[in-house]
Amino acid sequence: MGKYEVRQSEWEAVMGNNPSGFKGADLPVEQVSWEDCHEFIGRLNALTGLSFKLPTEAQWEYAARGGNLSKGYKFSGSNDLEEVGWYGSNSGNYTHRVGEKQPNELGLYDMSGNVWEWCEDKYGEYNITSQSDPLGAAKGSQWVYRGGCWCFEASYCRVSFRAHDPGNRYYSVGLRLVL
Which CATH superfamily is domain 8-174 in? Predict the structure, then answer.
């Protein structure tokens, strides 16, 4: 799992443009659709010879909760969102440089707040049986994004909160990669 959300400088280096509303090399890229993310990933993989992808929803939540090191926090790395994330009450109504708040137990930054993060999965109900590394819904017209953002209240930044959309571009949605 990427230590940070994808930064605008990284997006620009691969795509040659910056769609973000808030500009800054170390700010998270935003205003990217689910399809834009896959175009970025395809180009990045071609440039590097690696196999980056979006995390599944299960991978995202496991990492946000702190993996095997989890302390059971409500937010990623703390029960106090002020310590770990930018959200509606402390952001000043804009995104912030990645990594300014404290990381979670795995050393991952901004998994609660700053920008929502697209996941690979389609939105659907969870399977009621216990599973290890489950796949998302097989059918559906909306994609999952997680983590909350700079312009929403704290409850949306909980590691358990799920959001979904057909894949549109928003000033509050970016991405994080897994390898």
Answer: paralog of FGE (formylglycine-generating enzyme) (3.90.1580.10)
